[in-house]
Amino acid sequence: MGSAGMTAAQAAPRLGLRTAVVEQNRIGGDCLWTGCVPSKALLAAARAAHGMRHADRFGLEPVAPQIDTAKVWARVRAVQEEIAATSDSAEQFEEAGVEVVAGAARLVSGTSVAVDGRVLEARHVLLCTGSRPATPPVDGLAEAGFLTSETLFRLERAPRSVAVLGGGPIAVEMAQALVRLGVEVTLLEMAQRILGNDDPELADRLAAILRSEGVDVRTGVRVERASVDADGRKRLHAGEESWEAEELLVAAGRAPNVEGLGLEEVGVAVGPKGVVIDDRLRTSVKTVWAAGDVAGRFLFTHSAGYEAVRAVRNAFFPGSSSDAFVVPWTTFTDPQLAHVGLTGAQARGRHGEDAVEVHRLELADSDRARAEAATEGAIVVVTADGAIVGAHVLAPGAGELIGELTLAIERGLDLHELAGVVHVYPTFASDLQRLAAGAAYARAGRFAFLGRGSAR
Q1: What is the mean pLDDT of residues 308-329?
Q2: Which domains does the chain possess?
């Protein structure tokens, strides 16, 4: 009953299906207890502290915030408990006709699930067991002890210093949040840049912002071992270099939860990324389906829920949801970094150099960004033969803006079609319209010029 399971449990009864959901831990899964909710609550506190320090950007007197991280962590837990008691409560699902079964589930056949001595029989089974933080092969790491996203929010207060192992969204978000709350932060990434799936130039700009705020960002670092000093401080080693901190935070990827489910015994194929599925989300056993992190395709709350509904529909209404879909993602730093589709380099590799154009609008030229003192960023749209195939945004609220661009890619829209939609001014969305209009005018001008030339 994480993001995928809860969404499926909400959808299935509306389709007239008798539904049971098995949960061995807490309803809400990773998103509520170790992921989206606590991390965003922590980021909100960190953003408020940062705003106080830099109030002079708005003509106000800056002040040094008095930070008690125990109170911040308590507020994070309060937000979680409020959601657990309302939106994610078992009672809500039971009132909708879903049977909520507590315990550990195991497949005994393609249509039978054993839960602590009881056997549930069904026409179809949907696997939504999610994922957990992966542990990198670093000598001495287990002995030194470390935090992950699953244990960070169980603390009573923040450590005084943290060395973060990883450079993906979780690592980067927590690095910025912690440093803004007064924690000394070092971030170590094995690749040559953080956020390797994002637009390289925008990722580098975000790295520069993190460094300006005090995060010691180190890239191209292959951590080989961990140790504990005589005074109890922990240390990560890479060649001749080492970095010490009170705590280590490991944010180096995810591993699917496939153990103990009886998958191999009933013939469900499992690969290195998780349960193997086809384009309809069906496993190698025709009555067993999988959605979300356990299937290893897109490790996001929003895609897990989307996949779960598609799986339910395909199970009972075959072929209704087999087409491909576009998944956006956002790193919720300040500013946010969001993307969907292809980068410029990826588009050129797929569509050819001559077909691809990369359109850019700097936030330094945005009225809304100037008003909010948030000019560090850009909107980048990638087109192939005029159609939008990728978009990348470094801006406040980029996660909100990326939805429109995802729809454009999903519907195969040309960039000029966005220019023809009225957007509210002043918003970052109106900057997107301005970018689209500029590209449309330039394209029309080129075609007009070519037309006159050919007439001659």
Answers
A1: 88
A2: 3-130+255-316 (3.50.50.60), 141-252 (3.50.50.60), 335-455 (3.30.390.30)
